[in-house]
Amino acid sequence: MIYAIGDVHGEADALREMLAKLPLAPTDLVIFLGDLINRKGENPFDCVQQVIDFDRCRKVCLQGNHEEALLMFLAEGDYSIMTGMSGQSTLDSYAAAGYALTPGDPQSMPESHARFYFQAESWTLPFYITDDFIFTHAGWDLSRPVQQQNPHVMRWGHVRGFETPVMPQRIIRGHSPLPKVTHSKAKHYIGIDTGCGLGGLLSAIALPSEEVFTVKPKSYNPRWYQSSTRPVNE
């Protein structure tokens, strides 16, 4: 079985509860769809540490746009992108763990975390494909083969190319928060970002059964979707 977990956005307790809730077997695969950090969650550092430490079965973690933002902060010294992506929670949680992240200085981060953000581990990938599914953080162009996919779209974009798909797999994605796990009308993709870290739930889906698992984070607010506008940077 494959279990895909949607955007976490710093809700470490919710992620811990979700991992305990999933009925994992040693032969299963857990795919984290990215965006472990930033937003309202209080402990992005612990979210990343949980993924690094996870060893109950095989794992894959995709890079989300929020991880890329922190990578730009570390590699290029771009502080503005973190402030624009509600990244202060991430900087604060690393500081509380003893790591004052410095713009332009990747060595200010623990080595294991730097390897995670720079995708230096075998389980850190831009996307993941099986015979039945394509896992991406954000976007995918169904009209193009794998070698023609745009990495920027995978982290920041949307699913497109419905009219002329060249691959039979369904897309499993996060990135775009909605109140519940959502199937596209044309059944080309399933979106599992349910607003964790914005007031919504943390969600996961088992495949191929499509059983959905949810956890209420500390920041849960049942009116979050009605009372807020969609973030500029999802």
Write structural notes for this entry.
With 234 residues, the chain is α/β, with parallel strands linked by helices. The protein has a single domain (2-64, 110-227), classed as Purple Acid Phosphatase, chain A, domain 2. It is 26% helix and 19% strand. The protein contains 8 helices and 13 strands. It has helices spanning 12-21, 44-53, 65-76, 80-83, 88-96, 111-117, 151-156, 224-227; strands at residues 2-5, 29-32, 58-62, 124-125, 127-129, 133-136, 140-141, 159-160, 170-173, 182-183, 189-191, 202-207, 212-215. The chain has a 6-stranded mixed beta sheet with strand order 4-3-2-1-12-13. A 5-stranded mixed beta sheet has the order 5-6-9-11-10, with no helix packed on it. A two-stranded parallel sheet has the order 7-8. The relative contact order is 0.18.
Strand order of the largest sheet: 4-3-2-1-12-13
Biggest sheet character: 6 strands, mixed
Sheet-strand content, in percent, reads 15-25%
Which CATH class applies here? Alpha Beta
Low-pLDDT ranges: none
Taking all residues together, what is the mean pLDDT? Answer: 93
Number of domains: 1
CATH superfamily: Metallo-dependent phosphatases
The class by helix and strand makeup works out as alpha/beta
Radius of gyration: 17 Å
Question: Element order, helices and strands?
Answer: EHEHEHHHHEEEEHEEEEEEH
Described by the principal axes of the CA atoms, the overall outline is globular
Helix content: 25-40%
| Number of helical segments with 4 or more residues | 8
